[in-house]
Amino acid sequence: MAVKAKQAAGSFQEVQGKTSRYGRALRGIQDELVQKEYERAVAGNAQAQFELGERFYQGLGVEIDYANAAAWFELAAKQGHPGAQRILAMIYFLGRGVAPDPAEAYKWVHLACVRGEEKALSIQKKIAAKISAEARAEGEKRAANMAISPSPRPIP
């Protein structure tokens, strides 16, 4: 019995070692991907900005940081990225990484709907049901005053 326990412990340590090596390799690849995404995002690529926002929002290869996520989503949203606009609406509605702002939330979800973001319509209805008529009107006014590019920049 003692021999089997030693063999199992040895096998377990071997698996742990391999898992640790694979984990380091994956972290290295993840770091590389984040760096490339960051470079594209800084260069103004709306899709990369959106993806970086997703990483910070969900903690994909980076620590969760809602304020950083909001900043990247906003850069993409201002370029007309409808997915970023939809998520940014929820960020402002929930106050994740930013101060809650119902009018700002409605502005972004309204813009996402105008751009044809399928998931945005149900979110718009939910937000509209929970905010005042004044906040909705202010959000629509802000949306009308936005100068959004016709479409997000393509990925190079």
Topology readout:
Layout: H1 2-42, H2 46-58, H3 66-78, H4 82-94, H5 102-114, H6 120-130, H7 133-144
Helix pairs in contact: 1-2, 2-3, 3-4, 4-5, 5-6, 5-7
Structure write-up:
The chain is mainly alpha-helical. It has one domain (2-144): Tetratricopeptide repeat domain (Serine Threonine Protein Phosphatase 5, Tetratricopeptide repeat, Alpha Horseshoe). The protein has helices at 2-42, 46-58, 66-78, 82-94, 102-114, 120-130, 133-144. Helix 4 runs antiparallel to helix 5 and helix 5 (102-114) packs across helix 7 (133-144). The longest helix has 41 residues, at 2-42. It is elongated. The N and C termini lie far apart (61 Å).
Question: Would you summarize the structure shown here?
Answer:
Helices cover 74% and strands 0% of the residues. It is built from 7 helices and no strands. Mean pLDDT is 84; it is low at 150-156.
